[in-house]
Amino acid sequence: MTTTDNGFSRETLHAYVDGELAPDARAAVEQHLAGHPEDAALVAAWQRDKAALQALYAHVGREPLPAALSPHRLARQRHRAAGRWSGLAAACLALALLGAAGGWYGRGLLDDRQPALGLLVDRAVAAHNLYVGEVIHPVEVAGTQEDHLAAWLSKRLDRAITIPDLRAAGFDLVGGRLLPDGRGPAAQFMYEDESGRRVTLYVKPTPESPDSAFRFISHGRVAAVFWRDETISCSLVGELPRADLQRLATQAYEQLG
Questions:
Q1: Which residues contact 112 (CB under 8 A, 6 or more apart)?
Q2: Which of 82, 122, 144, 164 has its CA 20 to 30 A from that of 24?
C-alpha cells in the first residue's frame, strides 16, 4: 500500500475522492486533510481531474450499446480478463520481491525525490484504469487516423508529438485521446496485442524539466515505467511483467526523443 509523505495511504485518499468511504472513515480523512496541506492539495487536484473527466465524458455512459456487442462476446472478454488477473497476481509478487532486493522499488523513493513525477504516475494510472477496459469508446481518435491524431494532440499539447510505433513488440495502436492534467492537457495513447492485452502511454508537457532515467513502479494491479525527456514527461502503464513493460518503454522513448 502506498502512502503520502504524511503517512496516510493514497488508496484511502482515492477512496475519499470517489465517495467510497464509510462516514466515520470519511470524517477521519477530512480531519487528516485539515492538518496536512500537502495531502489536501493532492486531494484537491484529484477532485479537479475527476470533475473535468465527468464533464467531458459523462455522456458516454448514457449512449446506447450497439447491437454488435452481444452477451456472448462480453462473456468471453470477462473470462479472458479473469485469466489475466490471476496471472498478474503472481507477477506482482515477483516484481515486489525483485524491487525490494534492488533497493529502489516503492513509492517512497519516487515521492521523496521527484513528487511531480509521483503525481504524473498517479494520473497516468488513473487514466489507464478508466479507459483500458472500454469496449465502445476506448479512445477518442482511432489508430486508423494516426496522422490526424498526432497533429491534433501536438497542437493541444503545444509540442511536436510523434506517436510511437510498437508493432515490433506486438502491440498495435488502438488510438488516443486528450486528457486534463491539473492546469494543462495531457495525451493518452492506447496499444493492444493479439491476446487483447492493452497498455497506455501518458504524455504531458513539462517545461524546464531535467532529463531522468527510467523508473519502474508497481501501482496496485498495474505497473508503470516513467521518465522525463527534454520538454515532456511520459508514463507507460500496463498489466505486463517488468521486462516487457521496460522493453516497450524503451521503444517509445527512442521514437519520442
A1: 5
A2: 122
